[in-house]
Every structure is written in C-alpha cells, then in structure tokens.
Amino acid sequence: MMRYEGNEKLADESSCAGVRADLKMCLLESECCRLDKKTPRQCLQDNSVPPECQVLRNTFYECKRSLLDNRQRFRGRKGY
C-alpha cells in the first residue's frame, strides 16, 4: 500500500481509487513492464506479475464486486 505524505490526495476520488492506484504502480514497477516493455494489461493476461500485484488485483476485484453486491451495502466496501 502506498503512503501519501501530508495533504497529498489522489486526483481520482471514486470508489476503490486507492487500490487502483496501488495496482497500477505495482504493475508499472514489475519486471514485466520494465524489462520486457509490455503494457500492464499484457502482463496481467500473461500472468507474469509478482504475487504482490496478484493480491492487489484480487483486492481491486473484490472492491469493485462489493459495489454491485447489495449485501455489502450494510457491511461497507472492501479495500481502502
């Protein structure tokens, strides 16, 4: 999880924005994007990303899923 110093905020204020930003940075810093010069989408499709990015991808999926699940309305959104 990325830490933001002081009054820094994401430009994206939507739901799951923090998880999305962390996943994006994780993918861009992975060897697949840096050394192989692939796009993050290609790296995800090839399953050639580190386990940390896989965990963030699953967290992002659960966060987006909780927006559609009416049961989650009472429990709150997953993610951060």
Automatic annotation (TrEMBL):
GO biological process: mitochondrial respiratory chain complex IV assembly
GO cellular component terms attached to this protein's record: mitochondrion
Protein's UniProt keywords contain Cell membrane: no
A Pfam family annotated for this UniProt entry: Pet191_N
Keywords recorded for this protein, A-Z: Disulfide bond
The protein's role, per its UniProt record: Involved in an early step of the mitochondrial complex IV assembly process.
Family recorded in the similarity comment: Belongs to the PET191 family.
Identification of the protein by name: Cytochrome c oxidase assembly factor 5
Gene source species: Drosophila busckii (Fruit fly)
